[in-house]
Structure prediction request, 302 residues.
Amino acid sequence: MKDISEGGSAMFKRFITATDFSLASTAVISNMEKLKFLGLKEGLLLQCLTDESADLAASAYIAAELEKDLESKRKILESQGFKVSTRVVKGTEADEVSRIAVEENFDIIITGAKERNRLSAPLLGEAAYNIIHKCRKPIFLLRLGDFEKDGEGVLRPERGDYLKKILYATDFSKTAAMAFDALKAIAAAGTQKITLMHVQDRTRLDPYMMHMIKQFEETDTVRLNNMKAELAKVSDAAVETLITFGNPSRDILKEIKNNNYQLVVIGSQGRGYVSDFFVGSVGHNIARQSEASVLLIPATAE
Prediction:
């Protein structure tokens, strides 16, 4: 497997990821090597302490355990070939990860998101959900699932063969175009199959623009085929195009569920930006509910 830096682009060279004592955190750290196709080279492993946890960390025992956990995870990442530094800060994970990512110009945030079971509600944890709403940096949401190993339950990536099959959803906006740039870089790393998907939003077209559906579909088909041609210049991936008419979030989630996509690439709008674009609210919906991992590419601040 190549990484995107081999093609001359180090789009996501520097990463930041938060850690704690949870099994989900350990699963993310243990499987970072699978994300090298993003071009990851060096990163910051961040431990965030709330007021309550900071008080606990004041004890010598907890402080020693904290340092031991950070050092252990740093060694895991270094064994995977990453250059890693560690840091302990006071504050919430969402606030501190978002702040440091911007202030120190990290290229991407890596965070875990546990798969939901039949009784649970959101797929996305509170910290990850808050990060995607606050941060103006690309975010890789690594979907984790429960598996059994040697009779015990373990957490590991769900649909973790990321370059095997990728879904890219677009509304042809500026933010979606930025997500497409990321897709092209990933495609060049050895992606096997890609689907370029556009959903014609029924709520925007029905009833006043229904007479233009055929015209819109013809225009959208040309746009998707142009994207397909661009991908052919950098990748040997098999590329398909797909246009549906309906509810964007519902249609995309259905496509992910039914066709075993390993990764979804989509644009994301955050708080403080126009949030009713397709790639804004829909991007966040996909991040919360997708059964596959999601790469969210944000809009650039004006």
About this structure: DSSP finds ten helices and eleven strands in the chain. The mean pLDDT is 85. Residues 60-79 form the longest helix (20 residues). The chain has two domains: 4-157, 165-297.
